[in-house]
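Now for today's protein.

===
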Amino acid sequence: MSASPKPARSPSFLGRAGPLVLARLFTAGLTLSIPLVLARVLHLDEYGTYYQLFLIATTLSYVLPFGVAQSLYYFLPRAEAKRPYLGHALLFVTGAGVVAAGLVWFFLGHVAAYFNNPALMDHRAALALYTAFFLGSYPLEISLTSQGKTKASAVVYLASDAVRSGVMVLPPLLGFSLHGMMIAVACFAGLRYVATWVVSLRGSTGPLVDWKLFKEQLVYAAPFGAAMCLAIPQQNAHMYAVAGVVAPAVYALYRVGCFQLPVVDLLYTPTSEVLMVRLGELEREGRLEEGVEAFREAAGKLAYVFLPFAAFLFAAAPEFVGAMFGQKFLPAVPIFRVSVLGVVLSILPMDGTLRARGQTRAIFASYLVKAVVTVPLLWFGVKYFGMMGGIASWALAEMVGKGMLLIRVPRALSTPERQLGLKDVIPWRELAQASLAAFAAGGSIFLLRSGVHDTWVNLPAGFLWRVLPLAVAGLLFVVGYVVGLYAQGVRPWSALQSLRPRRAA
């Protein structure tokens, strides 16, 4: 009797994130162009106003959904009839969008007075419409990813980000300035809202509303939603605090210092989303014990990217800020170096893991502590140290919150048969290897700068000459990092291979 063929080994679950990563990688350059182009086209005061407008919009857009849209990651992988959960999310965020528009319309004047920037009121109508429609379209990509449709979600990311980048960059380039851009983004958000209803409900079954299921969905979402009500204002508090004590032109410098390339969102968000779906599948299949391996795999791959990325940005901060924004923004370099800590803190996908295990109360507790810690830190930091105190307060509060989440992860991934500790969930080997190689590569940039500083200063004017120091530093860092990994027996391409989309044999 011939032996039965062995079942084909299923590909790593991270392979599902591949389409999302590739789509975001393609649009990252377009998205990155927005602040870079506007920094050169808009006047410094107007550039600060642009940042203040979108600070308000993003704060409302992340707080008011109250976790209902994110609850789709938990319910859809477990549900047969998916339409009610989708309908609840769409209706809830639509109502939240109306509330957001009302808040902008009636309270923007008070915010403008606090920011000492009456120019904000010139954009009240456009900001209200943009916030309402953008918030109402929040479930678009979530609805697809949570159903395992990562390729469709990637296409939506691709189209949406490309159009959004165009409507934000083209009006100022054509001479319509900030006012034209705000009208264009409001129209874009309206079209995205219509697309959200059409795409999200397509192919789903069941009634649009089921009050019993909505209550269950709201109970699950409430702790996470309450956590967002604390987390987003807390994360943005340093921006509001600084905006209230400096002029819009100086605030533009601070926001450049807080600028981060979209690499974190590019890799962390789809990886965390797919991890949540995978943990839900493992729970449904009775294979909870495999959850810790999925978490370590995700964190290990992120470590090989985020640690060198953070090390490069810290070491090459002057070259990066000068090349991307121009020499007038070089005073933002010290602030930028502190903000790089956010990349390191994103290595472990802890919040997604806790949400997948239904432990949203732990997320709420961590955000509550962060909010409590932030208030005295900001008061002291901004009062005595100005903008550096603002960014340092944010960094310290983030470390406290991430530490609280990390403590809860082992318990979330444990099973009755296997109780885990911190040493079991953290990918120590990957962290050590990436840290050592990144530290050595970053040191080479400091040595390069000390040797050719006079040469860089005397380079001719022009964009290509301004980018040359950054390009040389980047090439040196990449070579140093790859050599450092090879010296430790790590093959970089093999380490990242699981992010490539693959089919099962």
About this structure: Residues 1-11, 499-505 have pLDDT under 50 and may be disordered. Residues 27 and 158 are 6 Å apart (CA to CA). The first helix runs from residue 18 to 41. The chain has two domains: 18-247, 259-498.
